Target: FAD dependent oxidoreductase domain-containing protein
Amino acid sequence: MKLIIVGGGILGTSHALAAIERGHEVVLIEREREARGATVRNFGLVWVSGRSPGELAAAQRSRDLWEKIGTDVPGIGFRPCGSITLVRTEAELAVAEETVARTDSTEREFTLLDPAAVRALNPALRGTYVAGLHCGRDGAVESRVALPALRAFLAATGRFEFVGGREVRAVDSTSGSVRVTDDRGVVHHGDQAIVCPGAAHAGLLRELVGAEPPVRRVRLQMMQTAPLDEKLTTAIADGDSFRYYPAFAGNALDHLGAVQPQTPVAATHHMQLLCVQRLDGGLTIGDTHVYDRTVDGDDADVFGFDVTEDPYQHLIGVVENLLGRSLPPIARRWAGVYSQCLDSSHLVYREQVAPGVWAVTGPGGRGMTLGPAIGEQTADLLNL
Model:
């Protein structure tokens, strides 16, 4: 079979990988010469720790797939680094204790560490905290280089073509096969098409769905430092991250929300700390959240075109407090936008929008974590 995949981010590339592994041909069309959306603007985290119980099986499967991909494609920079969520108050500690006591704790490889054990595992963490929730199943890839490395691996099969710098204008399957027309008038023929538009919800996606798709856009701010002169052996998070991941929901989290409100800047910008060290030593640090629709589908905030300094200064202070030292200079600041399915019970918005044509988008902040598993699920659904 020949598949035409529209969208060269992590979802489109993961679908290409699943199809190629099953013996098919793939043409992957990306509107930019190189994908530059959410995939390359994220942490590169494979984040099993925060996934809800209903998502855990998919997250674990994706984590295993990433490890296999990392063996086949060393250029993606996969490492099973794990993570430590550092807690600084008794209320945050109670959330960590409740999490470790759950039945799926062993499966996630959760361990609650005292400060001495935290420093033994990650000596760079010489700052202030009362405990650390370690997740041995978390990992990381190099988000800025993973996609080119994956495409080179796929191209070596002789059954993969990447067409960059082309925007798809139409997808038609009325004749029985699929015809995908790009903005240069070139028609790409295939047996099926998978459209992975990322956060581009208007235009092609809306035309294919025939209505407003059940997804929303989420904007975040992040930054990266110059290389740190020591190694962070794990990714790190702070106690605010408990508030944003469904795995930590429970009585202790409800109590945390009641007795320990976020700082004004963190609350205003819906913030948590995540931090991962790149292979060059720099630290990717974030993030904030702004939503353009409510979970009911109504219009919400309008995204600004600029980035705001207060969240950056807040995050710098949090990281320096946990490291017990000053950070290197900030080398880059940026904003990114990802697509989030409005129905939280689904990993992704996935719908057959025409015969032989599927739309797949909206993994939320889980795209890098769940991409390989989502691609595999779609391949199963299409009987590839």
The two ends are 8 Å apart (CA to CA). The first strand starts at residue 2 and ends at 6. The mean pLDDT is 96.
